[in-house]
Design a protein that fits this description.
Blueprint: H1 9-22, H2 29-40, H3 54-59, H4 78-88, H5 93-109, H6 113-130, H7 134-150, H8 154-167, H9 172-184, H10 188-201, H11 206-249, E1 253-257, E2 263-265, E3 290-291, E4 297-305, E5 310-318, H12 323-331, E6 349-354, E7 361-364, H13 370-374, E8 380-381, E9 387-392, H14 395-404
Parallel strand pairs: 1-8, 4-9
Antiparallel strand pairs: 1-2, 3-4, 4-5, 6-7, 6-9
Helix pairs in contact: 5-6, 5-7, 6-7, 7-8, 7-9, 8-9, 9-10, 9-11, 10-11
């Protein structure tokens, strides 16, 4: 007789058979892999990350991203676009707009203003087609105005604040945003109007009161600067007219520009038309004719040395000074580096200018003053800078004069 807990041979056989039939069958994994390789042959997996760009490719997988893209679209970020579609697919248009607002606020709190603008814009695009909640979309426009303001896009910020105000005229944040944008755009008159609109609704609004005070100060400063600029321009024009009158009184001719940019000598006296007269010198030093404290004309003068392709620039040549006075300083003790033979000296130098209208070379007496030469009927000052040709005795002088006559 069997004891408790024991089984007979028949019972054992039956139990064992049941266990064998009910338990899962073990599989030899190595044998299975070998069988697959034997059937299909060696196969290289080609869908993995590349060795050269694995970090960039891993960055495209949402699970492993360290930063989200600035703009999400189905072509450049299909996985993220799909996740966003899943996020919003069960929401109503108004619910989606509200979710976009919350996304934008989250980005704004992190100072991610471009992302905030994108989120608010998406929310606004939903409302443009299928939602009619003015208060919600006034907030979206107002929040986008704030994000644009922080990006320095003051014109866009003002535009969004205007849209928000049109949807909700008593939206205080929109009135503040509009005032701030106008202030940055230096539209001080408009900024005051925005502030006044808000203060009619909330007379004690501290932000608008501070903005209005600041705007008023800036407006006064701008008006003061405009007045100063106008006075400075008036004084400058008076000085220019005085200068032209001094030039005209000495019988000096300036070039007059026609509509095609060419210049001709003024043979009928100087017109007091600043747009037609050129007094700006061509030299980089910016030398310009002016009147000194004794009402004497002081000119920038250009000396040309065609033999060596060199020039000299005298920044301040007083009309009462003689040419020889400057030449003795320039060539009296030392010779310039390009005059290796020492041929240029006060005793060997000759000075010429091209007369108008003939174009012939006219010799200048070295003892003459600048005023005497400039007042000659045949001389015309081009581009505000009298110029003269300097030659020294020798073969080059002879050939040069022969070509010019």
């Amino acid at each position: 007789m069997a004891e408790a807990g024991d089984t007979t041979d028949g019972e054992a056989s039956e139990v064992t058979g049941q266990a064998t039939r009910g338990a899962p069958q073990l599989v030899d994994a190595d044998a299975l892999i070998d069988d697959i390789i034997a059937k299909k042959g060696p196969h290289r997996y080609t869908e993995g990350l590349s060795e050269d760009n694995w970090e960039e490719e891993l960055e495209q997988i949402p699970l492993f991203m360290t930063r989200s893209p600035e703009v999400v679209d189905a072509e450049s970020s299909p996985a993220i676009a799909a996740l966003q579609d899943i996020k919003y697919q069960d929401e109503t248009p108004q619910g989606r707009a509200l979710a976009c607002k919350e996304d934008g606020n989250a980005h704004f709190a992190k100072r991610q203003y471009k992302k905030a603008v994108a989120a608010y814009t998406e929310g606004i695009s939903v409302g443009d087609t299928s939602c009619s909640d003015p208060a919600l979309f006034a907030v979206l426009y107002c929040n986008r105005a704030a994000a644009q303001f922080h990006l320095g896009n003051y014109g866009l910020s003002l535009k969004d604040a205007t849209r928000a105000k049109s949807l909700k005229p008593d939206h205080m944040k929109a009135l503040v945003r509009g005032s701030q944008a106008c202030l940055q755009l230096q539209k001080f008159g408009e900024a005051v109007k925005w502030c006044d609109e808000g203060l009619r609704i909330e007379p004690e609004n501290a932000k608008l009161r501070e903005l209005r005070s600041r705007t008023t100060r800036e407006k006064k400063r701008q008006e003061r600067d405009v007045r100063k600029k106008m006075l400075a321009e008036k004084a400058k024009r008076a000085d220019q007219l005085k200068l032209l009158e001094a030039i005209e009184s000495r019988g000096i001719h300036l070039d007059r520009h026609n509509h095609h940019g060419s210049s001709t000598a003024d043979k009928e006296g100087l017109p007091l038309d600043m747009g037609q007269l050129s007094l700006e010198g061509p030299h980089p030093s910016g030398g310009r004719v002016h009147l000194n404290s004794e009402d004497q004309l002081v000119w920038p003068v250009l000396l040309l040395y065609p033999e060596y392709g060199q020039t000299d620039f005298i920044a301040a040549f007083n009309e009462t000074q003689r040419f020889i006075d400057h030449l003795e300083v320039m060539f009296g003790q030392e010779h310039p580096p390009w005059d290796s033979e020492g041929r240029y000296s006060p005793s060997t130098i000759e000075l010429y200018y091209e007369g108008v209208p003939s174009g012939r070379l006219i010799r200048v007496p070295l003892e003459a003053t600048l005023a005497e030469v400039l007042s000659s009927e045949s001389y015309c000052v081009i581009s505000g800078t009298p110029s003269f040709i300097v030659l020294a005795a020798g073969a080059f002088r002879k050939h040069f004069l022969a070509r010019k006559t």
